[in-house]
Structures are given as structure tokens and as C-alpha cells.
């Protein structure tokens, strides 16, 4: 099946995610038309900036090609066409549907059900406008001096928490569109272009502003205007030519062609017009969102090779750890058994060394047990959230609904709060902690405080910029209510269960009253060195996948290969556990019993390498600029890296703890 629209969103990707050097927008643009339906021949195609001529109709300024993509363009020369096909079915729960019916106009019920009768109203929502290279820097569409249609205004309410947090700002366009009723070119409003409005449009055109609209939950992208070759005159696209495809009583296809280029001259009137053409389509409603996906990018041979490479690394590491440790441990057990057969004098004269010598201290509570147990509990919860969300995304196409992925993640995080309390509370009880209420509060609010603190800081910048990403006060209150009335009580339940069910310190060895002195060892056996080197292999197993994840979030790709993500998560956990076990064995063999923090931090150091990679991605794979976008990028990349580090640290500690308990259970202690 040929995908017309995949070309749309891929057409400007080289500057953001291309495999080669980012190129300027104007390097390969054709003077007569610009291809917004992308593909390999797009001047902005990901990975290869092509110079293949486009098949264009000079009279209509439309560019057609057999492939499709999923991003909007940044600049045009004469005329352009924008072809888009749409989102899969929108599943909204009963409460939201009832509130929408009661609060909004009746037409919106059909927008939710995605079924229409002939001549029934179809709403065109205007979402946001902003610079192409800064995906997260978006503003309300009517923050630019566009005019509104004559039809009565319809209000839109955020239906999910994810919608509100992601800056969705739907405003009614005022255009009169009815199902299967064609509209010839009609002027719907006029712009009185004074000096201030002209300056606003010129600034938007200079910064390659593009806008987003929705029809029946199908996103449509267009560009505000363009400049001439000398950059002296600026032009505004004034004619929106909509072509809507339908299959039965459902909308399955939306194409936009912008025409009517008008020069921006102060103290003039600019007429804005639109037309609507309906056509029958064979696209199934269930398949209408497939045209936004980009299999040629996400299922590229490099992606498959990276998964295969990581899988081979897992096999190698597991085999190496099993062979070396089992062989070494077997020798250790044999040596310790031989020492037990000696008499006291021979044992005193013997050269005792190795991990058995620290059996009286290896299960000693870690330093700062309250913080440590809270980190372990939070890491276990993050792992649970990641696993569940990926499974849900594999089953349900969450990318087809606005904000559904973020809403699902918030719901799952709140629901898995008992996991945090259980593992954190039980570990704190095993280590003899008595301030369990304080530990519960720290564990419950550790991750929310980190995320909300970063969002609060970025929100100040967003408010200063008047960006749509500024989180409304009501949304902040909703998030706080979730923390205090859902996460905290569930965390309390988990803490009580953990303390009572598995909070007893049933260690295989008795802990000595006096700590054993730690002997000197070689520099590369020091915990600090082990921590720095421990994250290299786990990062090496995931850094290719990080590129695809970064591209889907910071550029204009839609991530949908969650099977790959599940494999990478499993590989990351196995590699992390293997590395921390080896590091802990060498540390204990050097008679250093400070393995708890070492195992956690050596695995968590993966986050440092991920954050360092984010700097490389920012400077060499994107063209982001400005205080808001830079703060947004590095702020949330710090949150992502920290959460990943806490998760890896918890996984590494849990695996190492099982290993340490196992080896000391099998050795005979006097």
C-alpha cells in the first residue's frame, strides 16, 4: 500500500534527525514548488538530502509522490501542497463522552464517535503555531493576527491530563464545513494589516513558523508564509484548499494545499479564504493512521542490526559471567572447604583472603539507608511503569490519541505506587530503619518532586514566552491531588505490606558488631572507578535505540515500534545485572564490603552517558535554538536520564543482592 502522507512529515527531517550533516532549508528547495509529501526525494528526507527533481504540477503548485511521511515543512518558494491522512479511532471513556456531550455542541459527539450523517457539521480546530526547528515551542494559533471565521465559536476543553500537559490548545476556526458538502473558494474573513500585525507575520515567516489543525482528530500541518530569495519581501498564504476523503460515514483522509500567496504590505486588507472538496476513499478507518508512520526509518537495517548487536552482547556477557564466576566460585568453595579441614595452627599460618573474609560485614546496612531504600523503591516502580506502559502500547495504538501516552504513564505510575512502598519499605526495615514514615514520604515524592520541580522551572519560562506549553493552574492542582490522594495512600499500603511480609533481616550470615577494616587495594578496584566504568556496557546496548526515541520526541516522527523497545528494555536489564554482579564480585574479593551503593551507582552511571549523548544529539542532530527550547530540552533530558539511572540502579542492586545472598548461603561459615 502506497503511503501518500508519510512524505508530508518526513520532508524536513534532515535538519533534525538526518543521518548526515544538517542542511539549510534553502539548499535544495525548488523555485516552482516544494514537496511536502516527502519520501526519499524530499529535500528534507531523513538521512539523505536528495536533489532529485519532483513531479510537480506548476499550475496547481501540488507535489505528488508515491511515498508518504509525517512532518510539516519549514519553507516554500511558490506554492505547496500538504497531504495528510489520519489518526486511528479515538477511544474516549464514558465519563469524558458524557461531559463532552453536555458541555460542547452536539457536533462534537460525532467527532468523538467518528461517524457523521450527510451535511452534519465537521469541526476544524486550530491548534498551535510555532517555529519548525523548536517542536516544543508552540503558541496558540490566534496569537498570530489571523482572523476567525464567521461561524459561532465553539469551546474546547482538555479531555485528558496528557492533553493539558502537552500544550494542546484547540480553538475553533470559525469555518463552516459540513459532511460531504463541497464548498467553493469562499472568503471567511479579512485581516486589517497594520504595521504591528505585519511585523508579527514577518517574524513568524523568518523563523519558519508552521501551524497545526485538526479535523476529526486528523492532524493537518501548514506553513504561515515565505520570503523571497533576497529575504526582502514576505508573503502570506491566504487560501486553504481542503480535500477530505471519506469511507462510508467516516473521515479517513485529509489533504491541505495552501495557495493565494499575498505580499505583506502595511495598511492593506488581506482576504483569507478556504474551499472544501470531498472524495470517496478506499482507506479503511482502522488503517487511516498508518500513513503517519515511517517504517523506512524505524525498521531500517541499522535498527535491526543494533538489536542483533545488543542481543549478541547479552549472550556474550551472560556466558562470560557464568563461566568466570562459576569457575572462580567453584575454586573458592574448594579452597574454603580445604581450609576448614585444617587444624587451627595450619589455618592461622595459611593465607586467608577473598570474599569469605567479609562475611561478617557484607550484610551490614548501607550508609544513608533511608535515601538508599527510597531510591531502590522508586527504581522498582519506574521499571514496573516502563514495562506496563510498553505492553499497553504494544496492544493498543496509543499514538493515535492526543496525550494518551502521557495520560497512560501517569495513571500507571499512580497505580503502581504500592510497588515503591513494598520494596522501599521492606529494604528499609531489613536494614534496621526506624523512621519508616519519613522513608515512605521520601519514596512517594522523590520522582514526582523531581519531575514537578523541573516542570515548574520550565513553566516560568513558558509563561514568559506566552507559550502553549505553560501548564494551567487547574492542571497543577490536578497533579498535586493525584500525588497526595492517590500516590501517597497507595505507597503507604505498599510500605505496610513490605515491612510486615518481607521486612525481617533473614541474612545467611550474622553481622559483626565491629566493622572490619577495609584493606588497601589497587586503584582500579576502588568503588569510584567501578562506578564510572559500570555504565559503559549498559549504555552501549541502548544508545542506538536512544537515537530513535529522541527523534520521535524531539523531532517529527511517531514512535510505534514498541516491540523493539521491549527487547531493548530486557537487554538493558540483563546487561546491567551481569555488569554489577561482576563488579561486586571483584569488590568483595578485594575484601571491600561496601557493595550496596557501589552496585546501585555503577548501574545508575548509565544515566550519565545518556545525558552526555543528549548533548551530542542537541548540537549535531537538531537545529534547536532559543532559551525556551534549550531549557525544555536539557531540563526534561535531565529528568529522563535521572529516572533511567534510578531504574538501572535498582535493577542492578536487586540482581546483585540475589547473587551475594546466594554465594554466602552456599559457603560454610564458622
Automatic annotation (TrEMBL):
Q: Name one GO biological process term.
A: protein localization to membrane
Q: How does it sit in the membrane?
A: Multi-pass membrane protein
Q: Which UniProt keywords apply?
A: Membrane, Signal, Transmembrane, Transmembrane helix
> Is Nucleus a UniProt keyword of this protein?
no
Q: Which Pfam families match?
A: EMP70
Please give the family membership noted in the entry: Belongs to the nonaspanin (TM9SF) (TC 9.A.2) family.
- This chain belongs to the protein called Transmembrane 9 superfamily member
Taxonomically, what lineage is the organism? Eukaryota, Metazoa, Chordata, Craniata, Vertebrata
- The gene it comes from is TM9SF3
